[in-house]
Amino acid sequence: MLLKDIIEKLELKVLNLANENVDVKDAYASDLLSDVMGKSKAGQIWITLQTHKNVSAICSLKDLAAVVIIGNGQPDPDMLEHAKEEEVCVLSTPDSCFNICGKLYELIK
Amino acid sequence: MIFKADLHIHSVLSPCGDLEMSPSAIIAEAKSKGLNIIGISDHNSTRNALVASKIGKENDIFVLCGAEVTTKEEVHCLCFMPDEKTLLEFQNFLDSKYIFFQNDPDKFGYQLVVDEEENIVDQIDTLLINAIDCGIEDLQKKVYELNGIFIPAHVDKPRFSLSSQLVFIPDNLKFDALELSKHAEKNNFLQNFSWFSPNRFITSSDAHYIPDIGTVYTELEMETLSFENIRLALQNIKPR
């Protein structure tokens, strides 16, 4: 499903828009950046509660479609700045990790 | 002169610290191991550091007073303060950043503040091993504002470290050195995480039990022992 349709259907808040026409088939949920660095795959949506600038760095290095910050978490200002420069899509949701993963699974799997 | 420094030691204030880890027992062990400098770095609290420093002075052990703080990213960082006033200010800062969670001593261990004679003078309620509500850069800024020493802890470890939690060293993060755990050589950290080089590294024991103290240490070169000279000696470590 296209990222823009996922954003609409899951009512994700857009903090920085990019990659909206990417076709998303999979996602990865983890709060350990080293784990995401090692195991995530290009094109996935990443679900996390981390808000550090390095989140954005890993999104661009691993070519992830978007990052979804759970529990209404606010990215650190320099994370957003980096995301804008590197065209990383940053989204947020009031949902818990479990709930947003469940909804996304329903949608794309 | 060369001074032997083990800058990462937990006392009975850390829930995971052994109940034998009283400041007086730590100093006695440090002395018997031939250490000159130790760091008292309990999780998120400085409250046993001054007692250790006092006993240290009587026994020719220089004690760096501080804490091993868990940032909101769950990165452990050693933070040391130059004097009593800044240590108190740093403790007040930590107090304002705790996310309260009642400690259960049966599950996590006791968090005891003790005096020179090993009498228990206080017990900390909030669980000290949790993250505080402060990111790593903001913590570092606070430490430097108070003229302290800042050392991200055991950066090679697969949990609670700069490498596990953030992968990269944030480009605006300042530090006096990076700490390697005693297993860092074995796991070839610097080969696997080449982007952590070149930097200045120390090695410390992260002792939770008396026999661990001084099992690894860092040699620091300076004329006379002082907080300022330790900072300078850290900055003079040959990068690798």
| Shape by Cα distribution of chain A | globular
- CATH superfamily label of chain A: HprK N-terminal domain-like
Helix content of chain A: 40-55%
- Helix residue percentage of chain B: 25-40%
Biggest sheet features of chain B: 6 strands, mixed
Shape of chain B: globular
- Structural class from helices and strands of chain A? alpha/beta
- Could you give the distance between the termini of chain A? 10 Å
CATH A-level architecture of chain A: 3-Layer(aba) Sandwich
Please give the radius of gyration of chain A in angstroms: 12 Å
Count of individual helical segments of chain B: 8
DSSP E strands of chain A, number = 5
The span between the termini of chain B is 22 Å
Largest sheet of chain A: 5 strands, mixed
CATH class of chain A: Alpha Beta
Unreliable residue stretches of chain B: none
Task: Tell me the series of helices and strands of chain A, N- to C-terminal.
Answer: HEEHEHEHEH
Strand order of the largest sheet of chain B: 7-4-3-2-1-10
Give the strand content of chain A: 15-25%
